[in-house]
Amino acid sequence: MRIIVDIGHPAHVHFFKNLIWDLEKKGHIIKITAVEKKDVFELLDAYNFEYTNMGSYNNRFKKLFSLISVNLKMLILAKKFKPDLFIGWGSPFVCHTSYFTKSKSILFLDNEPAIAHKICTPFADLICTSSAYSINYGKKHLKYNSYEPLAYLHPEFFNQDCNNDFSENKLEKKLNDCIILRFSAWDAIHDIGENGFNFENKEQLFKFISELEKYGSILISHEGNLDEDLKKYELKIQPEEYHFILSQAKLYAGEGASSAVEAALLGVPSIYISSLKLGFIDELEKKYDLIKTCNGHADAKVEAIRILENTESKNEIKRKRDRLIEEKENMTKWMIDLIERM
Question: Where are the alpha helices (DSSP H) in 110-168?
Answer without folding.
Answer: 114-117
